[in-house]
Amino acid sequence: MSAQARFLSLDVLRGLTVALMIVVNTPGSWSHVYAPLLHADWHGFTPTDLVFPTFLFVVGNALAFALPKYAAMGDGAVVAKVARRSALIFLLGFLLYWFPFFGPDGAGGFGLLPLADTRIPGVLQRIGLCFGIAALVLHFLKARGAAIFAVLALAGHWLILARWGDYTLAGNAAAKVDLWLLGERHLYHGEGTAFDPEGLLGTLPATVNVIAGYYAGRLLLARGANRETLAKLTMAGVACVAVALCWSSVLPVNKKLWTGSYVLLTVGLDLLVLPLLVYAIELRGIRRGTYFFEVFGKNTLFIYLLSQVLVIVMVRTFVGGATVYDWLYATVFAPLASAKLASLLFAVLFMLGCWVVGWWLDRRRIYIKV
């Protein structure tokens, strides 16, 4: 990509999203978290519920720049490249849940952790699948065909939820699909039952977030960063939010089910945030502070993986009968402030530690791509 074709605002949005993902994923104590930094319990929406769909949105932004290069390789090469990258991202997510691979075997020994109990869906898995589906749809069906696909995906997902279940944790169709295809032992149990918020059915509407990001990136690439482009993005954002709010009266906004109203709400908000960044960075030339987020945007998946591996290591190692994670919070952070503020300080400093690694890599021009 030429220097003229780069948009720093897109890099900043990607880096901002990764920074927020790390902060909301690593509070010092899950018992003491400010409400905006928690996901909605079920129906509803919090600022934290915008983070993951925004990551998918920026994946779509990147596709707007990458797909023309893919197309020049021919259909067979495009399929192979997209499938390989999608599978690799999925595999990394799966290995993350299997990590550290070895543990007590229940008979006083030590051996491989059983794959039969390893969660299959997950954040990276959904990113890999959504990237793959969106890239192939956009390549073969082009922009107009992808728009039709998006409409059918949202409508079809709504139909499945309404026809074969309800919108409750106990009775939703998404859980039934995952139980049937993957089995209870391969699903997330953090909701108190076998239900995976990154399950297979929700991947269909989540792909629309990627496609929407592609359209936004394509518009910027084709029209440039000017007031007309920003006005179009803003109007599209307002329209998406308005439709989402109307739709939510019959289809609740729900991240864990990834409902169509949730898709349109998050796409709409991203289409409002992006023009603000483009205006400030591209049009007004504001650069102060942008490098901080560029660091996260240059080794995005690696830094996210690093943050998750560090957490796993800290919760599986012990100091004085407590995990290193809990010990650090209780010993270093809890005495500094109120419980919620101390928990937030832990998350922010952990995020900054990950940033330092990204900064070190950037200074040495090491960029780990998947």
From TrEMBL:
PANTHER family: LD22376P. Pfam families: HGSNAT_cat (PF07786). The chain crosses the membrane at residues 12-30, 50-67, 87-103, 123-141, 146-164, 199-217, 229-250, 262-281, 301-321, 341-361. Keywords: Membrane, Transmembrane, Transmembrane helix. The lineage of its organism: Bacteria, Pseudomonadati, Pseudomonadota, Betaproteobacteria, Burkholderiales. This is Heparan-alpha-glucosaminide N-acetyltransferase domain-containing protein. It comes from the Bacteria. Residues 6-233 form the Heparan-alpha-glucosaminide N-acetyltransferase catalytic domain.
